[in-house]
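As noted in the main text, all predictions were made from sequence alone. Below is one such record, for Ferric uptake regulation protein.
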Amino acid sequence: MAQTETERGTEWLARGGLRPTRQRVALAALLVGDGENRHVTAESLYAASVSGEEKVSLATVYNTLRAFCEAGLMQEVVVDGSKSYFDTRMDDHPHFYWEDSASLTDAPAEQLEILRLPDAPDGMEIAKVDVVIRLRRR
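Prediction:
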């Protein structure tokens, strides 16, 4: 029997140790219900949820996305310091940011080569390196 979007969303929440409230399950189903990874903004996820049965406010979407990140289910990718995208793919990988459409997609990690990073300041360690490659038409 095929797994439903709601079942996938509920299992995803359980992996993060989150209580499956109706609103969380509805948003999780939109994010991972088809088994694919995706990049969303709070606004785009809210727009996708408007047609669903479970109504959620934009503030709830923001709070829920933060909870998903804190639970290790998603990662936040910040573009331009003020625009955040949320990615369901959790391994380290680079991104393309398409300036024309303001969208974010995965870039081929096997083509990225970082030869050296600067030393971290005393008492600090490098936790993560985010690579966002901005694209625009010529």
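The domain at 5-135 is CATH 1.10.10.10 (Arc Repressor Mutant, subunit A). The radius of gyration is 17 Å. These features were considered when defining construct boundaries for the mutagenesis experiments described in Section 2.9.
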